[in-house]
Amino acid sequence: MTLRAIISTKLGAYGYFAIALAVAIALLFAWVFFKGGYLLTVLQLAMIYGVFCVGLNFFMGYTGQASFGQNAFAAIGGYGSAILTVQYGWEPILALVVSMAVAGVAAVVVGYPTLRLRGHYLAMATFALGLITYDVSVQWTDLTQGYMGYSGIPPLGIGPFTVEDDKLKLVCLAVILALGVWVSSRLRHSRFGRALRAISSTELGAAALGIRVSRYKLLAFIIAALYASAAGSLFAHTVGFISPEVFGLQMVVVTFTMLYVGGIGTVLGPAIGAVIASLLPEVVRSTGRFQDIAYAAVLILMLIFVPKGLSTLASIGRRRPIKAGAEG
Amino acid sequence: MALLEVRGLTKRFDGLVANSDIDLDVPEGSLFAVIGPNGAGKTTFFNMISGFLQPTSGTIAFAGVQITNLRQDRIAAMGLVRTFQLVQLFGGMSVAENVEVGCHLATKGGIGAALVRPPWFRHQEADVRAKALELLDFVGLGVQAEQEATLLPYGQQRLLEVARALAAKPRLLLLDEPAAGLNAHETEVLADIIQRVNRQNITVILIEHDVALVTRIAHRIAVLDFGRKITEGTPDEIKRHPEVIAAYLGTEEAAHA
Fold first, then answer.
1. How far is residue A1 from each of residues A9, A10, B116, B122, B223, measured CA to CA in Å?
2. CA distance A96 to chain B (A)
């Protein structure tokens, strides 16, 4: 298969834009690599937020539901990893996987009753979930060490091989994010993904075609929780320190921004949004005390001129194919 | 035994009786129609059969199995698939993708299969794609396959809903006012499609306003008024029935006038 064929069949309308984007991101990475320093950390965090957003996109993008409480699952991942590695000396990888399992179970327990709610009610219920988790992480000091948080969390690694170097960390995180995007793409373009997207548009229509709406919503919620937990664990192992503030309301606001800037409901949007929204504060920093205003202005301009997100720039002005082959 | 057996079906909304003690037998393979003036309770009746509303009392049996109070998706899985008076297309998806969603019941595979993509899954995806295009050709929307579904003209959106419902391989297809808002030509096309569907041994129940359409294509017609079934019979019987004339034109005197 030629490169061109791969682009047109696998990536569809995103084809050329994806290539251009890949080149731009590769250049950015190369530059940051060469320069090193603070921007390395910024990009590391962008990758971690990216993982979180790709997961959140399953629930909010593909399935069209609102969750303001996904930070709760990131907290489970972060604290799970911190406690298991620092207190009990577990392998980081194992701690990450076990934390994800715990987050998954928590998502079932929380999701089963709350996903009966819709729209604003679901948003409020999930919002409460995030707030409760924050309070728990502050108050349950025996488990979480309160505001002090956990420090000295070991970096990721397998056996004797650990990822200590900041540049290597970034590479590993980028690979993990790419894996997350790949999973998202595979699931979106399948019977499962179609069912989620159908629900996002009309639950009545989906149910009439035999789709078990509540079951699919719960599955999307669980997937989002797994990604969030992984992101929380990655944060803990990358930064080496966590506290309640890491998984607070700020996280909800930041990730929502990323999701909408990049393009909610698209495959690449969440990852793109995470990178752009992470770098933007660094770019506008040069405006000194106006940086918050500049940041907000850029976001507003993006939402006005690219309301469906940066990842949809590609399809603007493109002609759609008349009829794709049966193999498409 | 009829494919669909409705007994004493009643629905009350607080004080309002939307459906009162309706009995209905729809034989397998028939093209059945339910007519009645606005507010006669036709859509309420459909909503109960398809599981979108719980009846206050009464029973519904499909292919000999009780389906009263079953969830919508389980009823659909048994082969009873409906369309909506207010079209419920999937926005943000192409015309073809809408029909592909319709193949949900006729296919299998969840998260694991989507990730691993074993050969059977890839074949199935190709089949789904081919099936969608075939059904779109069947309703005359083949050329629009890649268009955004909700940008189709209204008449074509209705046809797309029919194609999507057919993808679920129904034994019984419920069409809720499929001709509403269609012009004469579109209604003609729709009538032809409904008859071709019925000839594929799919039983059809049609709710309609357009009496001319119904009396032309239906084998049997039930008439609802004020939530009650006032009569049932062949198109010729219905056209001559005094109560039907009264229900549609107000009073018998008006009919004679």
1. 10, 11, 20, 17, 61
2. 21
User: How would CATH label the architecture of B1-79+171-257?
Assistant: 3-Layer(aba) Sandwich (3.40)
Question: What's the whole-number mean pLDDT along residues B74-96?
Answer: 93
Delimit the domains of chain B by residue range. Answer: 1-79+171-257, 95-169
Interhelix angle for A269-284 vs A38-57, to 10°? 150
**Contact at CB, A323 and B50, closer than 8 angstroms:** no
* Mutation for testing the B interface, residue in A209, A223, A227, A311 having most B CBs under 10 Å: A209
Q: Is the ipTM of this complex over 0.85?
A: yes
A239-295, pLDDT tens digit by residue?
988 988 888 888 888 899 899 988 889 898 899 999 988 888 888 887 778 888 888
Q: Do B115 and A186 touch (CB under 8 A)?
A: yes
Subunit contact A205:B147, Cβ cutoff 8 A: no
Question: Could you tell me the two tokens for A321?
Answer: 């194919």
Going from N- to C-terminal start, the domains of chain A cover 14-312
CATH class assigned to A14-312: mainly alpha
Residues 6+ apart with CB under 8 A from A217: A59, A63, A65, A111, A115, A199
Chain B hits for A206, Cβ within 8 Å: 90, 101
Bridge partners, B174 (sequence order): B82, B205
* Residue B86 touches chain A, beta carbons under 8 Å: no
